[in-house]
Amino acid sequence: MDCYTANWNPLGDSAFYRKYELYSMDWDLKEELRDCLVAAAPYGGPIALLRNPWRKEKAASVRPVLEIYSASGLPLASLLWKSGPVVSLGWSAEEELLCVQEDGVVLVYGLHGDFRRHFSMGNEVLQNRVLDARIFHTEFGSGVAILTGAHRFTLSANVGDLKLRRMPEVPGLQSAPSCWTTLCQDRVAHILLAVGPDLYLLDHAACSAVTPPGLAPGVSSFLQMAVSFTYRHLALFTDTGYIWMGTASLKEKLCEFNCNIRAPPKQMVWCSRPRSKERAVVVAWERRLMVVGDAPESIQFVLDEDSYLVPELDGVRIFSRSTHEFLHEVPVASEEIFKIASMAPGALLLEAQKEYEKESQKADEYLREIQELGQLTQAVQQCIEAAGHEHRPDMQKSLLRAASFGKCFLDRFPPDSFVRMCQDLRVLNAIRDYHIGIPLTYSQYKQLTIQVLLDRLVLRRLYPLAIQICEYLRLPEVQGVSRILAHWACYKVQQKDVSDEDVARAINQKLGDTPGVSYSDIAARAYGCGRTELAIKLLEYEPRSGEQVPLLLKMKRSKLALSKAIESGDTDLVFTVLLHLKNELNRGDFFMTLRNQPMALSLYRQFCKHQELETLKDLYNQDDNHQELGSFHIRASYAAEERIEGRVAALQSAADAFYKAKNEFAAKATEDQMRLLRLQRRLEDELGGRFVDLSLHDTVTTLVLGGHSKRAEQLARDFRIPDKRLWWLKLTALADLEDWEELEKFSKSKKSPIGYLPFVEICM
Q1: How many alpha carbons lie under 13 Å from residue 467 in its C-beta half-sphere?
Q2: CATH of the domain at 261
Q3: pLDDT over threshold 80, residue 196
Q4: Quick one: 35 and 18 in the same domain?
Q5: Per-residue pLDDT, 132
Q6: Which key words tag this protein in UniProt (predicted)?
Q7: Mean pLDDT, rounded, for 235-261
Q8: Helix axes 571-584, 587-595, angle to 10 degrees
Q9: Nearest-angstrom CA–CA distance, 761 and 764
Q10: Residues 446, 179: Cα–Cα separation, whole Å
């Protein structure tokens, strides 16, 4: 504790920078970092090394090896590279490894070396080959920028939604630029490149020459450039040894520093803290590391071995063969508490707590001093904030004890910030463990959010730790434990050395009826892995038929899908399966399947009545359902046919079907309708007018109205209309005509079977 500030290095009068060790690396590299393509993901992400790249290869027969490590140096994956020459490596925001090949093809691998997909950067890149590439991150996702052999740039701002943009040509560019980078301004990706003493900015429409304001004279070339983590600031290293720092828009200069070294650096990255006014750039050569900013002096470190810089939100990670370190600006709260002779309220509270543990009266003196100044609340807040920025657990505990001690003397201090900090630090200490290897700082953790952190633990298959964190933070099950268990189950189905029965049982025992878990999603993953039987077993645990059926259809288990749909009682779901079966099976097999499912058969008949009448006819024939077949022909004679011959033929088919169904009444009625249709057609031909489709009674009435009483009487005799009904029909028709003479003759023709009172009533 006494030497706590020994590794603090001042940069000017207002800021300190410190470098501390994250891990001692035990990854046993067989080659130097300089002989490998290296890519490290931000936010404490993994490290990828491609050993023996082609540009260093001496023996063409030796294939390079792609290795992926955690930030603590633990191996995650290793695979022999069997594809083409690789120009650049980089990590996406989802921690997928992007490998840019010389032919413009980008191969995407998972954290554990599993191949995900590939895409091409276009034919022009394929023809001209790739000279250099950058993987960058924007608010839309992760992008790729390519420099081709024709010295043209092509980029895509989001590899998840690939849209290639060919950037404008740089006038007079005959060779590769000395340095270049990507900028993100106004939600658009740009390319900034240096050609000799000139800088050019490429956007989607034009190439513009730009000049940094206040640049020292005598610059003939830019050797290196770096954009900050948030794309707000830019640094340029010139051949004169000057480092220009300003805004990324190149409209404002922040400062300029002469490092007196003209050799081009290996790397140059920004090192700044969110909401800090200090701006610093870290520059690395073979054996020297320099931190420069708006101060006449710089901070210098000696590098004992090859090192690689990884820019972060609030600092820079530096790893080599043996160590992994973090360099950052000391936060304000830590600086006020720990700097020598500090009288800040947080420093006094920390001293008071130490003296209290020693049972010294000085504790009371320090507390009184803070309280007299009215700064006890500020002191507690300072200690809580400083604890978040400490990497060592013993320092975290010391500061939190001081904060807890100070809270005891405050009446109304809200405990939320203290409790939340304790929870956050417990989570951070768990993931910083060597065997986990995610060295997040408090600022990075808050920027990343707990949900993304859980996703990254799941990606590393650290399911128990992820579940413990969810339970500790009491996250809602749907967002926490349920989601993680679902990911675990999807990974479990990929273990092909375990039987389907054992895997399904293990998943069900672990998941049970956990809310938010979809067995159908897990079954879909099993099917995607080629384990169809396992997928079917898992679907048995899925309570929602609407989720079971689509996957069963996809797996070509249509009959099982039909059974599940019928069990659900959802007619729309049954119709979906029936239409799928109809397209999948031949007609005979389809009908046989329906015969075994009465409910499905009934629903399909209803569908056919409105959509497919011929199929309905085939169904009745298949089932020997002559009664329904006769009814079908009756409807068809009225609905489809217009010619009398066709209608009579349909009615004849109906009569035959009724006879087979032993329905004598229906058969006789159908034959009478056939006779009536023929007679009506003959009447139309002979008398004119409309008779077809009239009923028997209406036909008789129409004949009487037309003055064809004899024909009406003959029709009545042919169809055996009773006399009473015929007299009523004739009486009503003659009364409508007001043909009273004919009505009188009709009444006297013979004795009326209906009496004479109706005649009197109609006449009146």
Answers
A1: 14
A2: 2.40.128
A3: yes
A4: no
A5: 94
A6: Coiled coil
A7: 94
A8: 150
A9: 5
A10: 34
pLDDT in tens, 720-759: 677 666 666 766 766 666 666 666 666 666 666 666 566 5
460: its two tokens: 């590393």
Give the pLDDT score at 56: 47
Half-sphere exposure of 609 (CA within 13 A, CB side): 11
- The burial of 178, by beta-carbon neighbours within 10 Å (0-12 exposed, 13-18 middle, 19 or more buried), is given as middle
Contact between residue 521 and residue 490 where contact means Cβ atoms under 8 Å apart: yes
Lateral strand order in the sheet of 179-185: 179-185, 188-195, 198-202, 207-210
Q: Residue 661: pLDDT above 80?
A: no
Is the pLDDT assigned to residue 429 strictly greater than 90? yes
User: In this structure, are 149 and 225 located in the same domain?
Assistant: no
- Write down the pLDDT at residue 263: 93
The C-alpha angle 691, 693, 695, rounded to 5 degrees, equals: 85
The alpha carbon torsion through 142, 147, 152, 154 (nearest 10 deg) reads -20
582, 590 contact by CB (below 8 A): yes
Neighbours of 55 (CB within 10 A): 10
CA distance linking residue 254 with residue 3, whole number of Å? 34
* Residue 246 and residue 234 in contact, taking contact as beta carbons nearer than 8 Å: yes
Residue type, 333: A
**Residue whose C-alpha is closest to residue 108's, from 89, 80, 125:** 89
Q: Quick one: DSSP state of residue 167?
A: P
Return the structure tokens found at 383.
């200690």
- Residue 238 pairs with which residues in a beta bridge? 222
Exposed, middle or buried by CB within 10 Å (0-12, 13-18, 19+), for 77? middle
* 452 and 551 within one domain: yes
Are 101 and 14 in the same domain? Answer: no
Number of domains in the chain: 4
Provide the pLDDT for residue 1: 46
Q: What is the pLDDT of residues 378-414, one digit of tens each?
A: 999 999 999 999 999 999 999 999 999 999 998 888 8
What's the count of helices (H) and strands (E) in the chain, helices before strands?
A: 28, 29
Q: Please, which residues have CB within 8 angstroms of residue 429's CB and are 6 or more apart in sequence?
A: 393, 396
Q: What pLDDT sits at residue 319?
A: 96
Asked if pLDDT for residue 502 goes beyond 90, the answer is: no
Q: In terms of domains, do 343 and 480 share one?
A: yes
d(CA 517, CA 477): 10
Domain termination site, one of 567, 598, 629: 567
Residues belonging to the chain:
764
Q: Mean of the per-residue pLDDT values for the chain? A: 84
Quote the domain boundaries for residue 742: 694-763
Q: Which tokens in the block code for residue 582?
A: 């109809």
pLDDT of 559 strictly over 90 = no
Structure token digits, residue 741: 């003479």
β-partners of residue 132 are 147
Looking at residue 292, its pLDDT comes to 96
The reply to whether 372 falls in a domain is: yes
- Note the pLDDT of residue 738: 62
> Within this chain, do residues 398 and 311 fall inside the same structural domain, yes or no?
no
Q: Is the pLDDT of residue 59 over 60?
A: no
Sheet holding 253-258, edge to edge: 222-227, 233-238, 242-247, 253-258
Considering the domain architecture, whether residues 94 and 175 belong to the same structural domain is answered as: yes
Cβ-proximal residues to 194 (8 Å cutoff; 6+ apart), any chain: 177, 178, 179, 180, 200, 221, 222, 225, 236
Paired tokens of 441: 């700082």
416-431 and 393-407 helices, crossing angle to 10°: 170
Are 413 and 530 within one domain? yes
Q: How far apart are CA 211 and CA 56, in angstroms?
A: 37
pLDDT at residue 405, rounded to an integer? 94
Q: Which amino acid is at 580?
A: H
The one-letter amino acid at 165: R
pTM, 2 dp: 0.78
